[in-house]
Specification:
The protein is of the alpha/beta class. Helices cover 32% and strands 16% of the residues. It contains 5 helices and 6 strands; from the N terminus they run βαβαβαββαβα.
């Protein structure tokens, strides 16, 4: 099982789509406040409504709480500034994939502190970045592919 961490997500449909992806793959969703929406937001629920019951979701007030709750975990932080591509890393069951808010990413302080743990999705340099829910799906499915899609059919 993999873990998706959303740090301060801002756009309800993105989080709804990510919750759906987590539910169908068995990934645990970890959400770090503050959110740019309320959890019962109709747009959030619309995107993931049929899947919300199957979702393992956990809430935190700071990313450091996630780190403290899983002190032996491996964390992969996504950033457009990372040197290593996401497909270059070797993933294993239990890994955490950390994504920042849509408008600002994870922030320099966290990325500097965990620079050895950063990965990026390659894209043309003059572009901003991919949609958050697409980015989660790309990285998660690479990890699932590397581990033989265990438990999925």
């Amino acid at each position: 099982m993999f873990h998706i961490v959303l740090v301060e997500p801002e756009i309800p449909p993105n989080t709804g789509n990510i919750s759906r992806t987590c539910a169908v793959t068995g990934a645990t969703l970890h959400m770090v406040r503050p959110f740019g929406f309320v959890i019962n937001d109709k747009t959030l629920k619309r995107a993931g409504l049929d899947y919300w019951h199957a979702l393992d979701v956990r809430y935190y007030d700071a990313f450091e709480e996630v780190e403290a709750a899983y002190p032996n975990a491996r964390f992969f932080l996504t950033s457009t500034h990372a040197a290593r591509g996401y497909a270059e890393a070797a993933y294993r069951d239990g890994d955490f994939f950390v994504f920042g808010k849509e408008t600002a990413g994870l922030g320099e302080k966290l990325l500097s502190r965990r620079s050895a743990d950063t990965i990026r999705i390659p894209m043309r340099p003059e572009q901003r970045s991919l949609n958050l829910s697409n980015s989660v799906a790309i990285v998660l499915y690479e990890a699932l592919r590397q581990t033989g899609f265990a438990g999925l059919r």
